């Protein structure tokens, strides 16, 4: 048996896999599979590492809710005092429904629409993280027409290599995010001259699943150089937002602990005289990724000449990261079998795509009907789930103080058909 992911609150008792002490096999029987199960204690422990790192500082943790935007998960973070980093009007609605304080919401993303800007201005969000000059001008126009001033920060592209998967690296020249280093000062001068904009801060986000401190330290140096230049031009910056991106243990990865990373970053801030500035961070994956597992049942074993397949009832529509990024998730039986030889399987789902796999070349001793846990499934799994193949999205359970509670019903076909207008419907 391999080791369990760090920070996951998973354990084994007589072989049986438990999450925060709760028997996962029992939950799978009660709620069927595929089923996501999350540990609230794991989320709060991950958050506490950031909070320890920021003790004595002015800092706001804005949970990047695209990682997992289920209402009850958002409530956990809202009740723990977090703000939210949103990327759409839908996420704004969800954050407000979860009880978020509007002034602790920041709005990121390259493609905000006028309607999204209007709603966010009307509820009074804390800051728009603007990603282009064109967006700045549209936001200015929307704010002026409402008689408001939009709080803005400009997302700068520090051009550092986060050394992560190309699809989740965002801080290099040549990707769509942020404003190039050399254009930043002129963009700030333009923003400061607009009647509908109030410059508040600066932000960057260099990528995701980062497991080294180096890229963060480099990005911070580059951002602080820009802060100095912008303030020398007479534009004060109230906050500095370093984005998210800290990695988690998927496969023995050893990312720095959040408090240790921030000790290094704060030392640099202090050395450069910015230690008392308000800090904002936008962690997503590192708060929820290892708080969740996806439970799935083995349907069939299909031996082959070149490969053996273990066909399970969870698929790429439930857990898209392997298909999308060739991501690795540990997969283990809930109750290991003794006295059965392990075989090497590709663990695949029922969807009609060759890309529908959850794990490759896994050593498993399993039989049909066995239950498996796909680990590290708290981030970018359920929030990326789709209805491909008219599969209903999975149910979700939150373990709260050792008590399991259902936080999302399994989606039915009727739920999916509700928005569709058949040809015999009255228009
Ligand atoms: C996705 C995203 C985050 C969160 O990234 P994680 O890797 O999940 O921590 C933060 N900020 C922005 C702008 C993002 O797009």
Describe this structure in words.
The protein is of the alpha/beta class and 427 residues long. It folds into 2 domains: 159 residues, Beta Barrel (Lyase, Ornithine Decarboxylase, Chain A, domain 1), CATH 2.40.37.10; 176 residues, Alanine racemase (TIM Barrel, Alpha-Beta Barrel). The chain contains 12 helices and 21 strands. The strands form 3 sheets. Strands 4, 14, 15, 16, 17, 18, 19, 20 and 21 form a 9-stranded mixed sheet that branches. The chain has an 8-stranded parallel beta barrel with strand order 5-6-7-8-9-11-12-13, surrounded by 4 helices. Strands 1-2-3 form a 3-stranded antiparallel sheet. α2 packs parallel to α9 and α5 packs across α6. The protein starts with 9 loop residues before the first strand and ends in a 10-residue tail after the last helix.
Question: Which descriptors apply to this entry?
Answer:
427 residues, alpha/beta, Lyase, Ornithine Decarboxylase, Chain A, domain 1, 9-stranded mixed β-sheet, 8-stranded parallel barrel, 28% helix
Q: What's this entry about, in short?
A:
With 427 residues, the chain is α/β, with parallel strands linked by helices.
Instruction: Kindly report the name of the CATH homologous superfamily of the largest domain.
Output: Alanine racemase
- Overall tally of structural domains: 2
Percentage of residues assigned to helices: 25-40%
* CATH architectural name of the largest domain: Alpha-Beta Barrel
């Amino acid at each position: 048996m391999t080791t369990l992911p760090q920070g996951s609150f998973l354990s084994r008792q007589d072989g049986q896999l438990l999450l925060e002490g709760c028997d996962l096999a029992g939950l799978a029987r009660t709620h069927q599979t595929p089923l996501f199960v999350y540990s609230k204690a794991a989320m709060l422990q991950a958050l506490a590492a950031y909070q320890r790192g920021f003790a004595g500082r002015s800092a706001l943790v804005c949970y990047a809710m695209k990682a997992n935007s289920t209402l009850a998960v958002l409530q956990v973070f809202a009740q723990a005092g977090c703000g939210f980093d949103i990327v759409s009007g839908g996420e704004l609605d969800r954050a407000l429904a979860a009880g978020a304080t509007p002034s602790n919401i920041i709005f990121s993303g390259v493609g905000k629409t006028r309607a999204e800007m209007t709603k966010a201005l009307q509820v009074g969000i804390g800051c728009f993280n603007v990603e282009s000059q064109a967006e700045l001008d549209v936001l200015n126009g929307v704010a002026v027409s409402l008689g408001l001033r939009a709080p803005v920060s400009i997302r700068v592209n520090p051009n550092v290599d986060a050394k992560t998967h190309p699809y989740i690296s965002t801080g290099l020249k040549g990707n769509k995010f942020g404003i190039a280093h050399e254009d930043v000062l002129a963009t700030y001068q333009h923003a400061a001259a607009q009647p509908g904009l109030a410059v508040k801060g600066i932000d960057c986000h260099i990528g995701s699943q980062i497991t080294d401190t180096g890229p963060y330290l480099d990005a911070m140096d580059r951002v602080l150089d820009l802060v100095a230049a912008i303030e020398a031009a007479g534009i004060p910056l109230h906050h500095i937002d370093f984005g998210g991106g800290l990695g988690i243990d998927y496969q023995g990865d050893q990312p720095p602990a959040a408090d240790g990373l921030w000790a290094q970053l704060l030392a640099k801030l202090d050395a450069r005289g910015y230690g008392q500035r308000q800090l904002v961070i936008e962690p997503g994956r590192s708060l929820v990724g290892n708080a969740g597992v996806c439970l799935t049942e083995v349907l069939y074993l299909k031996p082959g000449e070149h490969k053996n397949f273990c066909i399970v009832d969870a698929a790429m529509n439930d857990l898209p990261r392997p298909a999308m990024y060739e991501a690795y998730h540990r997969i283990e039986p809930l109750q290991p079998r003794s006295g059965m030889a392990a075989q090497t399987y590709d663990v695949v789902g029922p969807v009609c795509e060759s890309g529908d796999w959850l794990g490759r070349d896994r050593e498993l001793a399993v039989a049909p009907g066995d239950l498996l846990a796909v680990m590290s499934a708290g981030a970018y799994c359920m929030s990326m789930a789709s209805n491909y193949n008219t599969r209903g999205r999975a149910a979700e359970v939150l373990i709260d103080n050792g008590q399991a509670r259902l936080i999302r019903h399994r989606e039915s076909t009727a739920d999916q058909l509700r928005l569709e207008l058949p040809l015999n419907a009255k228009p």
